[in-house]
Design a protein that fits this description.
This protein is α/β, with parallel strands linked by helices. The protein folds into 2 domains: about 290 residues, NAD(P)-binding Rossmann-like Domain (Rossmann fold), CATH 3.40.50.720; about 110 residues, Dihydrodipicolinate Reductase, domain 2. The chain contains 17 helices and 10 strands. The protein has a 6-stranded parallel beta sheet, with helices on both faces. Helix 1 crosses helix 4 and helix 9 runs parallel beside helix 10. The longest helix has 21 residues. The chain starts with 14 loop residues before the first strand and ends with a helix.
């Protein structure tokens, strides 16, 4: 498995197709932002690929061989929305005034029928779905979709970024332990195989890079690592690091740097969009909870500092509240202690727009995975852990959740691709 550039990337010439399983709030906001930037109507705030710089002042977009925004073509699958315009209008992230000048381009991003199984997202009903067949048939249908899209849109390369919902909690089963077992499971309709895994399989079989933006069990299983190595494809995941977890990875390193103790960290979220509705189901929340809870141990290393961090009550809640829409509010109550054990409290209230924070991550991941593909970097790209709540690591290694360490690693690898 290669996770470092062994050669300078091939030029980013031609069109890059970015395909999103899920054409809801995140995907439509991402597409709208790129189109608005191309028209000079917006600035791509939050995107390191467009706005970020190396520590010596060099702008990433000036020196790293990335696809140009004008060369990006959008596509995707969705079980509900007919096109990106309908999705943007329904989700309500963007104002009608911001959508209006982009409407024709967004309407042109027509959703392909999705691979959908309601048992994985019990709160949603899909009506734009693939015809009945085995899960292997669905994988073949997705591969056909990708090949047809690439031909019709004249794309030289493709990248797939999962922007769909959080699936019900699952753990790796026997069918996930090898590529051969997984393919047998597809043909036998193994119930342990979720739609996100079928998308990942289809993309990797075609040599298309895949990023997992949800906490689903999509790539972090032996079959997927085996297939990524076999097809020499870069992959990364999982779960976009946006609101509350972003704040957690900012605050926790600072407390650790000052050797301040932590007794408890209570986190709750209020969210009213489609994602919030899906996570209102206990089986889907459990998937998200496992992603969110893993952050603190890596940063604080309680085994090295048991007196400071060995007895933390870490609680995470998500509450579906429709009036909030996409304006997620994350509350953190942190019980800390200092000199002579005296207690103190920190309270953080971050009212954010979930999709506004996620959209630039979709762009960066697509561009950086395309870069990795052109630089012959394959397998798990741990240097992209900067973007995820639960980063996939090489060979199951320990995850470093410190946002600043992750940024250093990201810039190090990007710099290695510069001539």
């Amino acid at each position: 498995m290669t996770n470092a550039s062994s050669a300078l990337p091939r030029p980013a010439t031609g069109r890059l197709g970015i395909l999103t399983p899920g054409l809801g709030a995140v995907a439509s906001t991402f597409m709208a932002g790129v189109i608005a930037t191309r028209k000079g109507l917006a600035t791509p705030v939050g995107s390191l690929s467009q706005m970020g710089s190396f520590d010596d002042g060099r702008k990433i977009s000036d020196v790293v061989e990335l696809a140009d925004l004008d060369d990006i073509v959008f596509g995707g699958w969705d079980p509900i929305s007919a096109n990106a315009l309908e999705a943007a209008e329904t989700c309500g992230v963007l104002t009608p005034q911001d959508i209006a000048p982009l409407s024709s381009e967004l309407e042109g991003v027509v959703a392909m029928d999705a691979v959908f199984e309601q048992r994985w997202v019990s709160r949603l009903e899909g009506h734009r779905v693939k015809e009945a067949g085995s899960k292997f048939d669905h994988a073949l249908a997705l591969m056909s979709d990708m090949e047809q899209f690439q031909a019709e849109q004249g794309c030289d390369r493709l990248v797939v970024v999962w922007c769909g919902s959080t699936e019900a909690y699952s753990e790796a089963a026997e069918c996930h332990q090898s590529l051969a077992a997984f393919e047998d499971g597809l043909k036998e309709n193994d119930p342990a195989i979720a739609p996100s895994q079928i998308y990942a399989y289809a993309a990797l079989q075609l040599g298309v890079p895949f990023a997992n933006g949800a906490p689903n069990l999509s790539l972090d299983a032996p079959w997927a690592v085996e297939l990524a190595e076999l097809r020499q494809v870069p992959v990364c995941g999982k779960d976009f690091k946006t609101g509350q977890t972003l704040m957690k990875t900012l605050v926790a390193p600072g407390l650790a740097a000052r050797s301040l103790g932590i007794r408890g960290w209570f986190s709750t979220n209020i969210l009213g969009n489609r994602d919030g509705m899906v996570l209102d189901a206990p089986e889907n929340f459990k998937t998200k909870e496992s992603s969110k809870l893993g952050v603190l141990d890596s940063i604080l290393e309680p085994e090295k500092n048991p007196e400071l961090y060995g007895n933390i009550d870490h609680v995470v809640r998500i509450n579906y509240y429709p009036p909030k829409g996409d304006d997620k509010e994350g509350w953190d109550h942190i019980d800390v202690f200092g000199w002579m054990g005296y207690p103190m409290q920190i309270k953080v209230d971050f009212e954010c727009k979930d999709s506004i924070l996620a959209a630039p991550l979709v762009l960066d991941l697509a561009l950086f995975l395309d870069l990795a593909q052109r630089a012959d970097m394959s397998g798990v790209q741990d240097w992209l852990g900067f973007y995820f709540k639960a980063p996939q690591e090489l060979d199951g290694g320990r995850v470093d959740h410190d946002l600043f360490h992750q940024r250093d690693r990201l810039l190090e690898v990007l710099d290695s691709t510069v001539a």
